């Protein structure tokens, strides 16, 4: 995965440490059922946003209208300069249930409404 890339849960590259197969089970509870956006982004060359590399089918990102090659410029009122900004803005706002995101697509600015699915607890007994 290129430097400056980040994955928001589509199962692709960027899942990072601890890596595939790492078991986070503790007495049946899972730490890996966090709510994912389903978006993979990479820094732009000019530092003005983050380019969408992939959108997971059926994800909150797809339902909101994100498309590959969109440039994310704003998430919930926070200006985006890098993938780190996208990650921080998402983490800060996902508990609200919904937030807006601004993207540039084919030179046009679009506002998308992201509805974050409710986090459901899971336990294997």
Automatic annotation (TrEMBL):
Domain PDZ: 37-82
InterPro entries hit by this protein: PDZ, PDZ_sf
SMART domains registered for this protein in UniProt: PDZ (SM00228)
Protein's recorded name: PDZ domain-containing protein
Classification via Gene3D superfamilies: 2.30.42.10
PROSITE patterns, sorted: PDZ
Signal peptide extent: none
Lineage: superkingdom: Bacteria
Species, as recorded: Chitinophaga pinensis
Pfam families linked to this entry: PDZ_2 (PF13180)
Annotated stretches, region: Disordered: 1-28
Skewed-composition ranges (Gly residues): 9-19
